[in-house]
Amino acid sequence: MDKRQFAKIDKVICANWKEIRKPGVLSVRPGYKFTGGWITDKPAIVVTVEKKRDKVSPREKLPDKLGGFAVDVREASPLDRVRHTDPATHAAIAMGRAEWAPPPMPFERTVLGATKPTPPLAIPPRPKRLAKKVKIEYTPPNGVKLDPVSGRMTITCHTSPDAGWPALSKFLAGTNTRLTVGMYDFTSAHILIALEKSIQNASGALELVLDHPALDRTADQSDEETSADLQRALGTQLKFAWALTDRDPLGHLEKYSLEAGRSAIEVAAVSD
């Protein structure tokens, strides 16, 4: 970060406040332009809006440039939207989980409801970290051996998400008895529907170990909602556990079982 360059951009922001103060704009700050989803080294005026739209009226449209700097419009995440519309709630959330605390953004100013340039937002205090969970050494379940397997095998590789769906849908449909899965997150509705159908048509069960990362803006539902939906749809056909990770508030010890531990060791997914 070039502080002198950022200070120069901030002066441009203050001088053009009326041009920035458009409906739906939450905040503005100096930053760098994103192109094709990747950050560049080109300084820019970063404007965060509640929601980006394809069609914007002339009255609401932001300028492409101000003071020689590109205006880079970005959609706020759900958490960032709360930060500007309900600061007290956001502070309580951010202090509860360290990874949800906003990063420091020098010269960031609130636009929502402000007719004149507001003072730069204060850099949030470093959140208190939750106490570390007790580390549990892995103990193999009785009657199960994790012996190495060698031999000629066929591996199906595919890109994700869209190009991988034809291969994944066939894989799920081929489940006859059981399916064992370890996943980072599970927030796609169409995959959930297909998975439930395949297990309901199978004679065995779904064994699932699921992590709990922060919710992505492209998610159809949260991991908690996925878990609840699977419980309703599969009942006793489901053996489920949250993954034991340091910062995950859902990975409680009482929810962990030896059966789930065995599932987590198996790589990616196994289907019969």
What do you see in this structure?
The structure is a single chain. The chain is α/β, with parallel strands linked by helices and 272 residues long. The protein has 2 domains: 3-110, no CATH class; 165-271, no CATH class. Helices cover 28% and strands 19% of the residues. The protein has 8 helices and 9 strands. The chain has helices at 3-15, 17-20, 78-85, 87-96, 165-173, 189-200, 223-234, 258-265; strands spanning 25-35, 38-49, 65-66, 69-75, 109-110, 179-183, 206-210, 238-242, 269-271. Strands 3-4-2-1-5 form a 5-stranded mixed beta sheet, sandwiched between helices. Strands 8-7-6-9 form a 4-stranded mixed beta sheet, with helices on both faces. Strand 3 and strand 4 form a beta hairpin. Helix 3 packs across helix 4, helix 5 (165-173) runs parallel beside helix 6 (189-200) and helix 6 (189-200) runs parallel beside helix 7 (223-234). The longest helix has 13 residues, at 3-15. The termini are far apart.
Task: Quickly list its features.
elongated, five-stranded mixed sheet, four-stranded mixed sheet, disordered C terminus, 272 residues, alpha/beta, 2 domains, 8 helices
Give the count of helical stretches: 8
Q: Give the percentage of residues in beta strands.
A: 15-25%
Rough outline: elongated
For the record, give the distance between the C-alpha atoms at the N and C termini, rounded to a whole number. Answer: 53 Å
